[in-house]
Design brief:
single chain, 196 residues, mainly beta, 4-stranded antiparallel β-sheet, 34% strand, globular
């Protein structure tokens, strides 16, 4: 038996108060834009023999520059792992993939053409070529945060064809449907289920 998890240690643990400084969101209206992502030492690990007196921890991936890793998702056949990582030291994150055996350099799965769009919280679909993730391609911002917090929309991305679709299954071009969006609200579960 094995467990996939993230091992995390903040840069200056005595100064950390919790919440976003440890890689967690402070309130539910916020998203990955608001996370403290620099200077956090963490890695994706495989924990085995955890029922014994000497469990084994194997590191599968650790960012070369100390930055946050979040939202791990194991593929249906346990051969691949999706996760959210940050592009360098800026606030923009993307969805990356490594083999379940581990890797030094991850493959970016999310579209990288537009450097100002964030992608996170990827999930494999049963179809091997498709993934679902959240993104800010609609360029909508949260009014109750004075327009300072980007809003997320669910996207389905076909890795084989490069086609990206929004939650209502409208085919999108390079603008990622920025004129055709509504934000995710109480019907999130219905919308997520419509992709499966």
């Amino acid at each position: 038996e094995k467990i996939l998890c993230i091992r995390r240690k903040p840069n200056e643990p005595r100064k950390v108060k919790g919440g976003f400084q440890c890689g967690f969101l402070s309130i539910n209206a916020h998203n990955h834009w608001d996370l403290w992502h620099k200077g956090i030492k963490n890695d994706i690990v495989e924990l085995s023999d955890f029922k014994s007196s000497s469990p084994h921890i194997k590191s599968l991936y650790e960012p070369k520059v100390a930055s946050l890793v979040k939202d791990i998702d194991l593929d249906w056949d346990a051969s691949r792992i999706l996760f959210t990582g940050w592009r360098g030291t800026n606030r923009i994150c993307g969805v990356y993939e490594i083999p379940a055996t581990g890797a030094e350099t991850p493959l970016e799965v999310s579209p990288s053409k537009h450097k100002d769009i964030m992608w996170w919280d990827g999930c494999y679909l049963p179809n091997k070529d498709q993934v679902v993730f959240l993104g800010t391609g609609a360029y909508q911002f949260l009014p109750c945060e004075d327009g300072n917090m980007p809003m997320a929309v669910i996207y389905r991305y076909d890795r084989k064809t490069g086609e990206i679709m929004d939650k209502s299954k409208i085919e999108l071009g390079d603008d990622y449907g920025m004129h055709a969006y509504s934000s995710i609200g109480a019907d999130w579960h219905k919308q997520a289920a419509s992709f499966c």
